[in-house]
Design goal:
Largest sheet: 7 strands, mixed
Mean pLDDT: 96
Number of strands: 11
Helix content: under 10%
Structural class: mainly beta
Number of helices: 0
Distance between the termini: 40 Å
Length: 118
C-alpha cells in the first residue's frame, strides 16, 4: 500500500523560509515523478514543482528562484525548500507521486498547511 506523508508546514513571516518533507512508503521514488501541488482558499489546486526519476526539475513561474525540489531516494523522501515566502504562497501543499509505466499510478498525500503572515 502506497502512502505519502507530508510535514514541515506552519506559520511563517513574509520573507521567511520553510522546508517541506514528504515521506513515501510502498513505492520507489525513482520510478515516479514526484511533485508538490498547492491549493489556496477559493482556488484550484496548482502544480508548484516536480522532479522526475532521472532528476529533472521544473517549477511554476511564481516560485522560480525561490523554491527548490529535491529527493533523497534511500530516505524515500522528497523535499520542497521554500525561501522568500510571501502571502501568495499561503496554501495547503500536497505531495504527489505519478507514473505511467509499467502501469499508470497516481498517489496523493494528505497535505500540509503553509501560512505566510506577519
Amino acid at each position: 500500500q502506497v502512502q505519502l506523508v507530508e510535514s514541515g508546514g506552519g506559520l511563517v513571516q513574509p520573507g521567511g523560509s520553510l522546508n517541506l518533507s514528504c515521506v513515501g512508503s510502498g513505492l520507489t521514488l525513482s520510478s515516479y515523478t514526484m511533485a508538490w501541488y498547492r491549493q489556496a482558499p477559493g482556488k484550484e489546486r496548482e502544480l508548484v514543482a516536480f522532479i522526475t526519476g532521472a532528476g529533472s526539475t521544473k517549477y511554476t513561474d511564481a516560485v522560480k528562484g525561490r523554491f527548490t525540489i529535491s529527493t533523497i531516494g534511500y530516505k524515500r523522501t522528497v523535499y520542497l525548500r521554500m525561501n522568500n515566502l510571501n502571502s501568495d504562497d499561503t496554501a495547503v501543499y500536497y505531495c504527489n507521486a505519478e507514473r505511467v509505466f509499467p502501469t499508470r499510478a497516481n498517489y496523493w498525500g494528505q497535505g500540509t498547511q503553509v501560512t505566510v503572515s506577519s
